[in-house]
Amino acid sequence: MIRYFFLVLALTIISSGPTPAYAVERGCKGKMYIKKGALELKLDDFSARGMDQSPDNARRKARAKLQDCAIMAKNLRWEHRKPDRCLPREGVFDYDIDSLKVMTERVACAVGREKGTMEVRLEGSGDKYCGFDDLIMTYDMTPQMCDILRTWEWDKDRQGSNFKNMDLVGADPGLCQKECNDDQKCKAWTYVKPGVQGTRARCWLKTRANFAASNNCCVSGVKGLEYRTDRPGADFKNFKVSERDPAVCQASCEKNSTCKAWTYVHGIQAHCWLKSKVPPARPNPDTISGVK
Q1: Which of 6, 116, 158, 263 could form an S-S bond across to 289 if both were Cys, CB 3.0 to 4.6 Å?
Q2: Using only C-alpha atoms, what is the Rg of the chain?
Q3: What is the CATH number of domain 151-222?
């Protein structure tokens, strides 16, 4: 009986083969940042996890996912969407790089680095085999790019007075701005990010510039604003602008038959100056002007 028991046990071990090895999960962290000389500006952090029977190979797989998603961010930087390979079901978390090109420009202009080459980099960190520092892309900034971006009202929605809307081919507010500039009827525009009103970005063109409400869904703009421009002289009326919105000054000029141009002065005590003719334009970082 005892011999029979050991015989059955031996046959069971032989037939079952070697004990299987179980996969382990390991993770790495990634940090996207803009670099120009000593300047470093953080964009987005995200993380990835890999699985393998070897812990080291699991980390290598996690690192590869971070690098792959960074390249995808570059290739899809106009589309403002997450690649399928960069979703949680694929082991990638907190990946939310909103239109890498636009974000790079916005951050660079905000800190006054209007000239020179910006580097967008991804740095990996964590346990062994997670570390790396990759150059994702370089970008040459110009003052002209920053002038365009300053006409955009970030995280603002100018609701109402819509006369036309359309899906955009890419996630770039500049495409919506161009639609407004090319349409004589358009006075203002609102760009809605992908995922809010559909999978694509959406553009709304407006017959007037209504109040700019705070909403991180959107970027808006008003047509005909001359940023950092003053038109001194020929004033016939002036008033405080409690809303601190240049569109209020612009609208006041539009409604006044005497008005030919206007200048809005920034600040807590924002002010509007209406003009009976169109004075010459002069540079002034504290003002926005326009011609009727």
Answers
A1: 263
A2: 28
A3: 3.50.4.10
Which candidate, 110, 62, 52, 100, places its Cα nearest to that of 78? 100
Domain ranges of the chain: 24-146, 151-222, 226-291
Query: What share of the chain has pLDDT > 90, as a percent?
Result: 40
For 228-241, what is each residue's pLDDT tens digit? 789 999 999 999 99
CATH code of the region 226-291: 3.50.4.10
DSSP class of 242: T
Q: Note the pLDDT tens digit of each residue in 23-57.
A: 899 999 998 888 877 777 787 789 999 999 999 99
Residue 92 is classified by DSSP as E
Rounded-to-integer distance, Cα 277 and Cα 273, Å: 12
Q: What is the pLDDT of residue 269?
A: 86
Q: How many CA atoms lie within 13 A of 213 on its CB side?
A: 7
Beta bridge partners of 275: 235, 261
Q: What is the pLDDT of residues 213-222, one digit of tens each?
A: 999 899 999 9
Q: What is the pLDDT of residue 174?
A: 84
How far is the CA of 32 from the CAs of 116, 138, 164, 238, 264, in angstroms?
Answer: 19, 13, 37, 47, 38
CA 235 – CA 255 distance, rounded (Å)? 16
Q: Contact at 8 Å (CB) between 97 and 103?
A: yes
| Contact call for residues 230 and 283 (beta carbons, < 8 A) | yes
Q: Helices marked H in 187-263 — which ranges?
A: 246-255
